[in-house]
Amino acid sequence: MFDLDSSAAHPLTAYGWDDGYAESFTPYAGQGFVPGRIVRVDRGRVDVVVPEAEGVRTVLADTALVATSDPMRVPCTGDWAVIDLENGLTGDHLDGVVRALLPRRTAFLRSASSKRSEGQILAANVDHAVIAVSLADALDLGRIERFVSLAWEGGAQPLVVLAKADLAGGPDTVAHLVSDAESAAPGVQVLAVSSATGDGIDVLSAVLAGGTSVLLGQSGAGKSTLANALLGEEVQLVQAIRDRDGKGRHTTTTRDLRALPCGGVLIDTPGLRGVGMWDAGAGLARTFSDVESLAEGCRFHDCAHEAEPGCAVQEAVESGELPLRRLESYRKLLRENQRIVAKTDARLRAGIRRDWKQKQALGRHMMERKRGPQR
Question: What is the tens place of the pLDDT at every residue in 176-235?
Fold first, then answer.
């Protein structure tokens, strides 16, 4: 077993281990436990990479000791864990158990696919959220805004990757699409790449070197092909796009963490057909910083940017400074985020009902004024 007190470089450094995680592990040191990073989760068991004398090895560990009904605390790919390799084995073919999870620094969350008011963590302790968008289809700026908002909210640095650039129709078209994506994600780097030709892969590899990155995108975005290009080997099965509708197929079925040749690690995720907002108010404000900045010039501090007098946002739309599509996307994501927050916040839920009743009363009043006095 690796000596944690050794002055040699820690074997898990390549997987993101640093002094901060070492400090978090201090309460467990000296008890026979070792730190490990979860590289895969499957039905209550996890694959964990742990240190040993000559490097690292991957072990299978049970998560029964950290089982919880709270979906926000369920072990996920990217978590750092306290692993007991000597005691408490609970079944055949198990190497150990997870005793605890170290505190997460960041987490990429979305609302659960069910109708329950729950969140789902897709990846933990992530530095870069790589948002893959296929240029083989029409560019969906709203989807980019959604992913970027969730990335900012989770604490990761978003990075938009326009994949399959070789199918976009030429350099001028690609440059135009990059500009459009940049307008939907202020302050976020946008890269156009092609796994088929290799264009842009070296730049992307350099950006991701040394950190933890999660690869996100809908089915058919080219994530598996992109992951193979970054990893330098065929580790993910690649399937063709369906001819009849252009939709992608799920080729990645689990969230797996793998070491990158350039340094750092990559978490590949299954294709996401839907990504719901999850309490991402701060992330939305950062993604739509242009709208928020304009709103500071509105006459009323609670301006809804619809029909209020002195609305600086509406004036910007009318002058062409702000695209109407951008404002509509902002409103849509705000409403969706407000609904998910209201499911777990009774006071906010009551406030929404109160505002709705006030708007109803105002609507009735305006209709009565329009009709005029009844004879």
Answer: 999 999 999 999 999 999 999 999 999 999 999 999 999 998 877 888 899 999 998 766
- How far is the C-alpha of 59 from the C-alpha of 34, rounded, in Å? 12
pLDDT band at 118 (very low <50, low <70, confident <90, very high): low
Selected residue with higher pLDDT from 17 and 254: 17
Based on its alpha-carbon atoms, the radius of gyration of the chain, rounded to whole angstroms, reads 24
Helices (H), 157-196: 171-184
DSSP 8-state symbol, 275: -
In this structure, the number of other CB atoms found within 10 A of the CB of residue 89 comes to: 15
The pLDDT tens digits of the residues spanning 51-83 come to 988 889 999 999 989 988 887 889 999 999 999
Look at the pTM and tell me if it is higher than 0.70: yes
- Going by their DSSP bridges, the two strands 265-268 and 256-259 should be labelled as antiparallel
DSSP H helices, the chain, are: 19-25, 141-154, 171-184, 201-208, 223-231, 281-287, 289-295, 312-319, 324-342, 346-371
User: Which residue matches tokens 């990217």?
Assistant: 78
Name all domains of the chain by residue range, CATH numbers in brackets: 11-101 (2.40.50.140), 107-268 (3.40.50.300), 281-371 (1.10.40.50)
Task: Give the least confident one: 39-43, 88-92, 143-147.
Answer: 88-92
The amino acid at 123: A
Between CA 129 and CA 154 the distance in angstroms is 9
User: Which residue pairs, CB below 8 angstroms and at least 24 apart, start in 342-351?
Assistant: 343/117, 344/117
Among 191, 130, 128, which Cα is nearest to 162's?
Answer: 191
Give the orientation angle of helix 324-342 with respect to helix 312-319, to 10 degrees.
140
